[in-house]
Design a protein that fits this description.
By secondary structure, this protein is α/β, with parallel strands linked by helices. Helix content is 38%, strand content 22%.
């Protein structure tokens, strides 16, 4: 059986620490972000039903032309934030809990979150208990 490396253990600890306060909110869905070296994706997940209600990704074939015309990966993240927010608002979802999935809150993750906020999603967290 393969053992986890020190780097994997550290990343899992950071990921679980960021999820500690985000799981199991009955009135709020979880907005999860996944970031790879080239792409970014976001999902709205209902933890009680175990279902994904909306998703947006830079790998979607519908927006591939738009993604290819952008200059940077940060601009693609902004576009994904807009798409997930519009999809959520269309399904009458406004309050979400942001799950950064262990990634630091800067760069592409922050750009995606700010874009989703700008387009109508309200994030719930430790700082703003509204």
């Amino acid at each position: 059986m393969k053992q986890l490396s020190v780097k994997q253990i550290r990343n899992n600890r950071r990921r679980n620490r960021s999820k500690r306060n985000n799981l199991r909110h009955p009135e709020r869905l979880r907005l999860v972000v996944f970031r790879s070296n080239k792409n970014i994706s976001a999902q709205l997940i209902d933890d009680f039903k175990g279902a994904t209600l909306a998703s947006a990704s830079s790998l979607d074939k519908k927006i591939k032309k738009k993604i290819n015309s952008l200059k940077s990966k940060t601009e693609a993240s902004i576009l994904i934030g807009e798409l997930i927010a519009k999809d959520a608002i269309g399904k009458k979802i406004k309050n979400v809990v942001f799950d950064r999935n262990g990634y630091p809150y800067h760069g592409r993750v922050k750009a995606m979150a700010d874009s989703a906020r700008k387009n109508g999603l309200k994030f719930w967290g430790l700082n703003n208990n509204d």
